[in-house]
Structures are given as C-alpha cells and as structure tokens.
Amino acid sequence: MDKRERIVRRIAKELHDGDYVNLGIGMPTLVGNYVPPGVDITLHSENGMLGVGPYPLESEIDPDLVNAGKEIVTELAGTSYCSSADSFAMVRGGHIDMTVLGALEVDEEGNLANWMVPGKMMKGMGGAMDLVAGAKRVIIAMEHTTKDGGHKILKRCMLPLTGAKVVHMIVTELAVIDVTPKGLVLREIASDTTVDAVTKATGAALLVDGEPGRF
Amino acid sequence: MNKVLGSAEEAVALIPDGAAVMCGGFGLCGLPENLIRALHARGTKNLTVISNNPGVDDFGVGMLVRAKQVAHFIGSYVGENKEFERQAIAGEIKYTLVPQGTFAERMRAAGAGIGGFFTPTGYGTMVGEGKETRVIDGRHYILEAPLHADFAFVKAYKGDTRGNLVYRKTARNFNPVMATAARVTFAEVEEIVEPGRLDPDAVVTPGIFVTHVLKGAYYEKRIERRTVRQLQAV
C-alpha cells in the first residue's frame, strides 16, 4: 500500500454516520473512496453543494456541476445547492463536522501553515482559512516529512499561518497524532515502524500515553 | 417594468474606464461569459475586477487580464492563470487575496447594508494583521469591511423580464451575492421568460437586485478539469 492510501484509509475510520464532511483538494479528496460500510456521510463542496457524487461518465458530463477543485462531478439523491455565501455560513457557523486538509507545516499548538511560501508568488488561500476556523474537527493528511526528510511537524510553524490553534489530529504514513492542550500525543504508529523512528522524524516533542496502537 | 437589454454590448457600453466590476463564477463554472467577452471587445481599461478567480489565460476574467484591462484584481485564488502570474511577478497588476468565505460575506454585507462584521477566519494570520479584533464568548474575531462595486456581471440560468433569476447547480456560486452588492447589476441568462413563467418559490435572486437582464448570445461553458469515470462491469 502506498503512503497516500495508508493515510487516507486511516482517516476514513474517523468518519461517523451522519457526518457532513469537507475534503480538501488532492490527497484529502481520496478519503471519500474509503468510507467504511454502514457509514453514510454527506460531502460538502464550498462552492455551494451538499451531497457531492462521483465523477461522471463521459455521457453525464455537465459543465454547470463542479466541486471545489473545479473537477466535474455528479449529484446524488438528496443533493442540494446553495450560494457561496450560504456555503460558507455552513463552514464558519460550525455546521461541518470534519474537514481534511493537507499541510506544509503543523505545530504542537495546532497551528497550520498550508497556503503560502515567502519568496514564491502568493496564489491565495481559497476556502482553507474559513474551513479551519469553522469546521468542528480539522484533520491533517500529509506525508510525515518533506521529500528530503525535513520536519513538517514542528514546535512552531515557520511559514505564514492558515489558522492559529485549529488542528485536532494529524495523520501521516507513520503516525496518528492528536493535538491536545498538553501538546502532541502519539496515538498510533504504522505497523512497520517504531516509536523511535516516528520521534526522530518529528520536530516537536511527542507525548506517549502507554503503548501506541498500530494501524 | 421591462429590464431586458438587447445585448451584452449595450450593457458594457455603460461601463467607464476605472470602474469596479464584480464577475460571478467559480473557476470557469457559472461565468457571465458573454458580458466578459463584450467588455474585452470594448477594451475598457484600468478596471478593478472582483471575482473568486481570474479565469484561465484565454477564457473568463483571464481575457481581461491578458488584454491588460485589469489594474487591480480582488479574489481568493489566482493559481490557474500563467499570464496573471507573469503580470503579478512583474508588478503589472495589483492583486488582493481574501479568504473565500470572507470574500462572499463582505459582498453579502455590502448588499445587505451591513457596515462590517466580525469573523474568526484569518485570526492569528497575515489576513488579520492591522485589523480590529474582538473576543466574543471566548473566541477571537477580526473585523472585515463590506465589499461594494460599481457594476456586477451575474450569470443565471433563466430570468424573467422583471429580473427575477433562477440558477442551475453549482453555476450559482457567487452570482446571487454579487447581484446584491453593486450599484448596477447586469444579469445574463440562457433564456428570458415572461413574468409568471418562473416558480416564485424557486426564484433565488428577486428582481429588485437586478438592473438589467439580457440573453447571452453564446455559451461555451468551458470545462476546467474533465474528470470522468469509466463504466465498470459488475
């Protein structure tokens, strides 16, 4: 199983029956492929749609129907549409149970940086700042380190923030980490790693409360 | 009362150089593409364009960007347009990034006569720098101002001659909120119908928010990401 599949499969276990969920662009979107049996969730797309369906067949393509990643999608029985203003009322108003987003950096206070790198052109935050400010639960889906092994989980984020004290859980190919008022708590580690290896790959202190579970 | 204009060309003839113009649409979905094409053809300059995205290089708001008609762009994400990026890096275009929900709510506030609002979005980030903050019930908020424009370009599915509008699927997006926030709102639609032909319960934008309605001459409805699935044998 590749890293991304391992990450999104683990996050899918956090879904509860009845949840309204917003999945970010890229890897987070894949969480929708692993919803556990018996769990019925409604996907929210911030451009103004509740109840996002799968990609269309070639014969079903409708240019008036896209998700927040500007991908063509379909509607389901029970889908509804709204304006972007109403859609963000759902987000900011605390009506979205969970959002899954990627990250460049996360720190032990739950600060998140995922929208810009100084010196590179600013492309915009889109809806990410609203999602982290408003969703009841913010889960980060990301690889544990950068491509050259640098830390992404830090004591303090260095990059400009998307939100301050907003992250609840971090899931990587190595670990499941809860952000708590005491700091980062290592809940689970991957079946093929060790607490030691996870600690070395992390740029902040990890609290271990008994033997971590395996995933 | 009849709000019907003959064409998009008639509409854009009312827009002077230097105007602030809102354009509905999310990416390339639900774009007032006929009004944008007409404004491009007219060559109106020094515009402030308020739209979630600046389109792509050769379509949507991107047409105005490429023709150097846009002095200032206000939106939430500008990552899909190479020419925009070139002008931004060269300092040829000014741009302001606003979180998407704040963007929508600032226009909602403008249309609803609200002088500003406190939002948690962006607190503790660059977006909150220099803004008034307040703690309400233990949460931190920042003060955001209403966002007005001189003109709004809105795309709806159908409209009646009195300016009542209905939308279709996610082509709704920012269109209804922009319709409320400008001094003059042009709505382009795929079909104009007589009063009484739209279900009053289904109207999303009541005609009071629409100054003029016109039938779009041609809709390309370009698709930005053509994601399809294959039929699978069961």
Mean pLDDT of chain B, rounded to whole units?
96
The averaged pLDDT of chain A comes out at 96
Rg value of chain B? 18 Å
Largest beta sheet: strand ordering of chain A? 4-3-2-1-5-8-10-11-12-13
By oligomeric state, this entry counts as heterodimer
Task: Reconstruct the topology from this structure.
The complex is a heterodimer of chains A (215) and B (234).
Chain A lengths: L2 H10 L7 E4 L18 E4 L3 E4 L22 E7 L2 H9 L5 E4 L3 E3 L4 E2 L14 H7 L3 E4 L11 E2 L14 E3 L3 E6 L2 E7 L5 H6 L5 E9 L1
Parallel strand pairs in A: 1-2, 1-5, 5-8, 6-9, 8-10, 12-13
Antiparallel strand pairs in A: 2-3, 3-4, 6-7, 10-11, 11-12
Helix pairs in contact in A: 2-3
Chain B lengths: L7 H5 L7 E4 L9 H10 L4 E4 L10 H6 L3 E6 L6 H8 L4 E4 L2 H13 L4 E3 L13 E4 L2 E6 L4 E12 L4 E2 L8 H7 E12 L18 E4 L19
Parallel strand pairs in B: 1-2, 1-8, 2-3, 3-4, 8-10, 10-11
Antiparallel strand pairs in B: 5-7, 6-7, 8-9
Helix pairs in contact in B: 5-6
Primary descriptors:
heterodimer, A: 215 residues, 4 helices, 13 strands, 15% helix, 27% strand, B: alpha/beta, 8-stranded mixed beta sheet, 3-stranded antiparallel beta sheet, globular
Walkthrough of the structure:
The complex is a heterodimer of chains A (215) and B (234). Chain A contains four helices and 13 strands. By secondary structure, chain A is α/β, with parallel strands linked by helices. In chain A, strands 4-3-2-1-5-8-10-11-12-13 form a ten-stranded mixed β-sheet, with helices on both faces. A three-stranded mixed β-sheet of chain A has the order 7-6-9, with no helix packed on it. In chain A, helix 2 (84-92) packs parallel to helix 3 (128-134). The radius of gyration of chain A is 17 Å and the shape is globular. The model of chain A has no long low-confidence stretch (mean pLDDT 96). By secondary structure, chain B is an alpha/beta fold. In chain B, the strands form two sheets. In chain B, strands 1, 2, 3, 4, 8, 9, 10 and 11 form an eight-stranded mixed β-sheet that branches. In chain B, helix 5 (100-112) crosses helix 6 (175-181). Chain B is globular and about 50 Å long. At the A-B interface, helix 2 and helix 3 of A face helix 4, helix 5 and helix 6 of B.
